Amino acid sequence: MAHHSDITSDIDSDVFDSDDDDNEEFTTFRGPWFNVVDPSSFIMPDPDFQEETGPVNFDPGDIKKKQAPMILCPHSRFRDWYPVTREEMLAFMGIVLSMGVVKKPTYESYWESNTRAWSMETPNFSQIMARNRFQAILQFLHCNDNTTAAEPGEIGYDPLHKISPIIEFFNETFSRNYKLNWDVCEDERIVGFKGRHQLKQYISNKKAHRWGIKLWVLSDSTSGYTHHINVYKGRRNERRSPNGQGYQAVMDLMEPHFYKEHHVTFDSFFTSPRLVYDLLDKDTHSTGTVIKSRKDMPSSFKNPAMQRGDVNVKTRAGVMAVQWADRRVVSLLTTTGSARQIQTTNGKGREVSIPAIIDTYNLTMGGVDLGDQLILQFEP
Predict the structure, then answer these.
(1) What does DSSP assign to residue 335?
(2) 43-44/54-55 β-pairing
(3) How many CA atoms lie within 13 A of 53 on its CB side?
């Protein structure tokens, strides 16, 4: 693991110049912010990432579960229990998804053949899986779910308790089949849904779907591979953090990957100095656009007097804050890379000069959006 030294303890007067305004405000956190006089010569340390990456040989059919100990009644279906096959699990998930489209009063009614509710497009579940087998699998999943479902409106109520085993199954499969590269990203994803549901959200900047269920997503920045999802359960049902919702979402998704020197990118909804430092303390690097008025940001960032192309760089205790004026002023926090100027091509095909960390952000932030584009290819 790389050692992250406190760079404010060894100041080079040729590179740094103290910002008195920032010093006064931030002496109680991680020390003062210092101006970087020559951004072209100031480079943050490179992480020492040595993990295995990419696809992993794994047979999706090799999913075995052990039945939890339970007391069976004389006529319990579990007395005839036998292991679930891969084909049965696929059929079971297909039935569950179909039940979300066609609403019926009871599970049993989905296997009734003499109802008008069925159409030519609606499958006959009895031809896919026997009703008793479906209910046995469903009961098995519930018995192996250790969570206790509170009632709606109660503290601790989980609106996803019926499908949590399926979400967990997918997350385990995602992680088994793919090892994340150094660059990862976190963002929101909307699963399109226009019906009525307490979890339905609206996000205006999502091109694929603006209405639907919101997910917190951890993706590989290069391939767009979805590695883990957490469903947003609503403000009343989410675990709260004194550091904010975005902070908690990132820490929850990255927890299995701490102390591996990953570099995670996120946008201004998530970014704060507290998050960047807490990730760094766990040997996890990060880059993110940030709202300039966030707590513990340099005070001089709040009302910048900058012309297009200007760069303002500060550093403190292993973190670099960069403010760059393009069509508008953009602020970032990072623990790796540099703010030196590089040449790149913009969206209109023109050669432009931008800070290197801006280019890094653009290259590594799009993993979730790339995953959204790949998903759209399979939507009807």
Answers:
(1) S
(2) unpaired
(3) 16
- Nearest-angstrom CA–CA distance, 174 and 168: 10
With CA atoms as reference, report the closest residue to 20 among 3, 33, 38, 1.
33
Reply yes or no on whether the pLDDT at 25 is more than 90: no
Q: Specify burial of residue 257 (Cβ count, 10 A radius: 0-12, 13-18, 19+).
A: buried
According to DSSP, the residues that pair with 332 across neighbouring strands are 289, 322
DSSP-based three-state secondary structure for 11 = coil
Residue 45 vs residues 5, 42, 70, 337: alpha-carbon distances, Å: 10, 10, 54, 7
pLDDT at 59 over 70: no
Q: How many CB atoms lie within 10 A of CB 349?
A: 6
Three-state SS at 179: strand
Query: What CA–CA distance (Å, rounded) separates 292 from 272?
Result: 10
Q: How confident is the model at residue 3 (pLDDT cuts 50, 70, 90)?
A: very low
Beta-carbon-side half-sphere exposure of residue 251 (alpha carbons within 13 Å): 20
Tokens of 62: 């090799």
For the entire predicted model, the pTM comes to: 0.70
User: How do the domains of the chain map onto residue ranges?
Assistant: 7-52+180-376, 60-143
Spatial contact of 222 and 367, defined as CB atoms under 8 Å apart: yes
Report how far residue 164's alpha carbon sits from residue 145's, in angstroms, rounded to the nearest whole number: 8
